[in-house]
Amino acid sequence: NAKETGMPVEIGMSTEMVTGIHGTIEYNGKRLAGMWPHQQLQVCEEAGVSIFGPVSTTNTKKSTPWNLGKALVFMKTHPNSDQ
């Protein structure tokens, strides 16, 4: 927690894929692998993270604007959400 250490805590999480050992890692009873960015954000806030870097997979067969649009849709938090 940044308040306790006096240093910012940074975390970067993987995409919505579940592979190998990562499928067994949990925080507060929630499996971390396979979470969407909005779910990752909730867990990071619970953990007291200061800097959060979500990831969105890209499709190399699609254009840059298509991939950017996909990333923005998945990263956007609903304005009525308390998250």
Explained architecture:
This protein has a two-stranded parallel sheet. The chain has a two-stranded antiparallel sheet with strand order 2-3. With 83 residues, the chain is of the alpha+beta class. The chain has one domain (2-75). The chain is built from three helices and four strands. The chain is globular. The longest helix is centred in the last third of the chain and has 12 residues, at 64-75. The model has no long low-confidence stretch (mean pLDDT 78).
Rounded to the nearest angstrom, the radius of gyration is 14 Å
* Count of all domains: 1
Report how far apart the termini are: 18 Å
Strand element count? 4
Mean pLDDT: 78
How many H/I helices? 3
Q: Which range best describes the helical content: under 10%, 10-25%, 25-40%, 40-55%, 55-70% or over 70%?
A: 25-40%
**Strand order of the main beta sheet, please?**
1-4
The biggest beta sheet reads: 2 strands, parallel
Binned strand content: 5-15%
Q: Which structural class best describes the helix and strand composition?
A: alpha+beta
Anisotropy-based shape: globular
State the order of secondary-structure elements, H for helix, E for strand.
HEEEHEH
Give start-end ranges of low-pLDDT stretches.
Answer: none
